[in-house]
Design brief:
single chain, 458 residues, alpha/beta, Amidase signature (AS) enzymes, 11-stranded mixed sheet, two-stranded antiparallel ribbon, 15 strands
Length: 458
């Protein structure tokens, strides 16, 4: 097995014990980039010379006994709406194609301090406002399992880079599902942390109250190791929350299958789902039940109104951010983003406030649900990846609107800010399927632990 095919967890231990060099690892990752990037288009900008320099610095420090931790010497890709000091950050757009921030995002600063090796900036849907990563300015990011299919977005480059071994870890952002959708379509692990746990300072916003930053990796423990570095209060982010955190998200699993209560909601999360997708998720639920977990049918009535609340909130907030550019530079937006930004100018203040009332009801009902169960299992997306350029997806042979359905199962957890992982659970129609594991607020370790239990079961 090539070095770049191994998990972050395994590679970190080999680097720590000096069995491999960060330089060897980075060179192998760049060999993968040279072989696969043209076909998959995961990157907007690649910085090989800088990466080799950082890898040599990491090698020197480790040889001198200055090991910084599990991310020291690990090659990481950064989504291109996360600021990197003194280097172009495009947001996947034409309008910001020459934008150069003067300081790092807090998450980049934390990765620097942890000794990560930065590979470059990853492709994304323009301004993160879309779920296909079919970018009119930087090209479509193509699915690692079938290059005619979408990668999912908006963090499509992050998903593809991990799945094709063109990065060992990656950062994504998630406002309606933008970490979890590409994780599901690409067959990797993606974590949307609890809102407020990971700083968004110096990350270009899509919708202030819904945005999250999180890791995308091969396995749950890999994301846990990244979260150990990324999590923590940041005064620069007004939504950052001071909270009690575990000693380590990657520490020992402290939940047992015999004491695990898993919630399943049939009326919303298994409604209008492709049969083969639902089958993969139900197989996982059955596996947990056979292994000692308790399955509980749960009801969350406010889910009946969640799609309205999510779309009003995300479109209104996004259009407020881009309002001036929409007036002055309308033609410089891609067609799909321009349409969504115009759409976001239509809701009234009454619409927005009604959406926030639904959001509050949803919060309360999920809090009540988590008094009954430890986690909730749902499909990540109700279908597999559609073709690039398509405006529809297929559910049981029927063509449905891609825009209407792609964030149907992910969006509720941006409204509530709850921690969610998308875990790969096999294939349907020869394409990857993802399953969401959702936990209570700030119980990110519980979500990661349950994901790790699943990886042990399979």
């Amino acid at each position: 097995m090539r070095l770049s095919e191994q998990s972050l967890y395994v590679l970190a231990e080999q680097i720590r014990t000096q069995k491999i060099s960060p330089v060897e690892l980075v060179e192998d990752v760049f060999q993968q980039i040279e072989e696969k990037e043209q076909q998959h288009n995961a990157y907007i900008d690649i910085q090989k010379d800088r990466a080799i320099h950082l890898a040599k610095e990491a090698e020197r420090e480790i040889s001198e006994g200055k090991y910084r931790g599990p991310l020291h010497g690990i090659p990481i890709g950064i989504k291109d709406n996360i600021y990197f000091a003194n280097e172009t950050t495009t947001m996947g757009s034409k309008i910001h194609q020459h934008f150069i921030p003067t300081e790092d995002a807090t998450v980049v600063k934390k990765l620097r301090e942890a000794g990560a090796v930065f590979l470059g900036k990853l492709n994304m849907h323009e301004y993160a406002w879309g779920a296909t990563n079919d970018n009119p300015f930087y090209g479509a990011c193509r699915n690692p399992h079938d290059t005619t299919k979408i990668s999912g977005g908006s963090s499509g480059g992050s998903g593809v880079a991990i799945a094709t071994n063109m990065a060992i870890g990656a950062l994504g952002t998630d406002t309606g599902g933008s970490i979890r959708i590409p994780a599901a379509f690409c067959g990797i692990f993606g974590l949307k942390p609890t809102h407020g746990l990971v700083s968004k300072a110096n990350c270009f916003p899509l919708a202030w109250s819904l945005d999250h930053v999180g890791p995308m990796t091969k396995t749950a423990i890999d994301s846990a190791l990244m979260l150990d570095v990324l999590a923590g209060y940041d005064a620069k982010d007004p939504t950052s929350i001071q909270c009690v955190q575990p000693a380590s998200y990657a520490g020992e699993v402290d939940i047992s299958l015999e004491n695990l209560g898993i919630g399943v909601n049939e009326s919303y999360f298994f409604n209008q789902v492709d049969d083969e997708v639902a089958k993969r998720v139900r197989e996982v639920i059955q596996l947990f039940e056979d292994s000692g977990a308790t399955i509980v049918e749960v009801d969350v009535p406010a889910l009946a109104h969640v799609e309205y609340a999510e779309m009003i909130t995300i479109t209104s907030e996004a259009s407020a951010i881009h309002h001036d550019d929409l007036i002055e530079r309308e033609e410089d937006f891609g067609e799909d983003v321009r349409f969504l930004l115009k759409l976001g100018e239509l809701p009234s203040a009454v619409d927005y406030l009604r959406a926030q009332q639904i959001r509050q009801q949803l919060d309360i009902q999920f809090q009540h649900m988590f008094q009954q169960v430890d986690v909730l299992f749902t499909p990540t997306i109700p279908f597999v990846a559609p073709s690039i350029g398509s405006h529809t997806a297929t559910i049981n042979g029927e063509e449905v609107s891609l825009l209407d359905h792609i964030i149907r199962f992910t969006g509720p957890f941006n409204l509530t800010g709850l921690p969610v992982a998308s875990v790969p659970v096999g294939f349907a129609h020869d394409l990857p399927v993802g399953m969401q594991i959702i936990g209570p607020a700030f119980e990110d370790k519980r979500v990661l632990d349950v994901a790790r239990l699943y990886e042990l079961l399979v």
